[in-house]
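Researcher: Next sequence.
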Amino acid sequence: MSVPILRNQVLIRPADLQPLDPGFEIIGTFNPAATRVDDEIILLVRVSERPNVQDAGQPTSPRATWESGKLEWVLDTFDKTGVDTRDMRLFRLPNGRVRLRFISHLRLVRLSADGTQIKEVLIPPDLLPREPWEELGLEDPRITKIGDTYYITYVAISRQMGVATALMTTHDFQTFERHGVIFPTENKDVVFLPQKWNEHFVAYHRPISDQWIDAPSIETALSPDAIFWGRHKFLFGPRPGEWDSVKVGAGPPPVYLPQGWLLLYHGVAPATRESPAGHYCVGAVLLEREDPTCLLARSKQPLLSPERSYERRGFVPNIIFPTGALLSEDNENLLLFSGAADEVVSLISLPVQSILEHLSLE
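Model: Next structure:
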């Protein structure tokens, strides 16, 4: 069934912000984490910047360094002989290693209670690359409030530790404490259940096998302290021949409903000429209230597909990538904060009842 969209608007574009360095340009403001704090909504937005390099054929990759005692950018350049530069996001060196063309950090955005108006954009120093495992950037955060603590999972990238998931916490969104890498390479799209289950934290994560014996799927894991994780369990994966046949990954942290825990996810179809990184749609699953590691229902068709111009055209076309979800103040609608085409932040409002009707039992 088709789910009615009550609102779909662009909140933030690259042109709305200034780069950290005048020698860089912002190419994407996207994939925001979201939470409520008092009478407003807080977003942590991924901001990607790349250097203004004159020679477009010269493979150049930025990274952060602290050798001078303060944050500085270093531009690593490479001989283009044998380098695969076809991907707009990265290039592959002759030895098989990959380097990014950009570097990302996080910015804090304060919104009105309904999520439609921007009140302020801030650049907290704690949200810039600071540790060795972040030298190639911080990406794609998610926020989960458990008790009086906000847990922020984010992708940390470095030459030594690859693409990993790290954790920081805050109580006030003014100061942030880092807890290091909690899911090592390669593991992304990590979100926490918003409450403990059987005295354990619950995470939903998406490891990728270098051998590709298994398809990139969502698994659960348990932890006594949100730092050390174990008891991993398969939850669900791609479906051959369907709209989510290549890989799946968790979107925002699960949202509690009387019917169960609602977990939105992105599902990817194979790459095409029009969708060089794959076609990213949004699906939903319903998890048991009493056992959030068990699946009750799952979308047979996409909940959302790239249809609007800013979802179909951008830095990476044909992508909706949900990373923040909050109930409206009357609990009737779901406010979904997403990245669109790896370029802008969008707000999509959907009726909760329509989402539940969209789900079908497996």
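Model: The radius of gyration is 19 Å. The chain has two helices and 26 strands.
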